Amino acid sequence: MAASIILPQGEISNVGLAVFDKDGTLIDIHTYWANMVKLRAEHVGAALGLASAHVTGIMEAMGVDARAMRIKPEGPVGLKKREIVLQAGVDYLAQNGITDTHQLFVDVFAEVDTKSLDLLDTFIRPLPGLRQLFDALRGNGVAIALATTDKTERAWLCMRHLGLGDHVNYIAGADIVAEAKPAPDCIHLCCNELGIPASRSVMVGDARSDVQAGLAAGCAASIGVGSGLTATATLAGLTPYVIEDISHMHVR
Asked: Which Gene3D superfamilies does the record match to this protein (predicted)?
């Protein structure tokens, strides 16, 4: 089946698959990642007996403005693979004379993955229009997939927590592809698994890397949304399809 995606800039017809970024597109990126990074930094700090200034330093290195509890536009958290975020914390401590912490960070990241399961109501905040859009896509026979820099398992956890697990047909996290966005690997995997060509798919995301991945994959449209880290003016330099948030995306 197929449907048309209606945007302020026009209509994209014969769409069989909508691929979404997760953080900043479907859920509030600042609430999710600022809290995750804070919890990670606090656990590392407790394990090493660090002063609070170093806990804050780890957060800043990973890409969180600790005072505002907001993600920095340059990341790396929210934009780069998990391993890059982890290494940023390791490098910060090494620059401050605290070495050989890589395995500690690996263990803490895994521990926080588990501990955060009890905090999902605090960490996950859906953005406006999410359920309505997913209901409309599903009702019109359009498959839904996620292409995310998060772990695949964590993305599924998020969708299930929001009550949308049965709406999503496939998720490709950065942990199951050779190259994360802006490479097209995640999108190609979604298309291949669902049997829908990129030419009948749209990519929707809040970051430059999302739009670039959609373009590289050969999607029918690469749609930028201004609800995350990237200004709509910046996204408009990459694609003609830019919306404030997914509530401005409709299905017919």
From this structure: HAD superfamily/HAD-like (3.40.50.1000), Putative phosphatase, domain 2 (1.10.150.240)
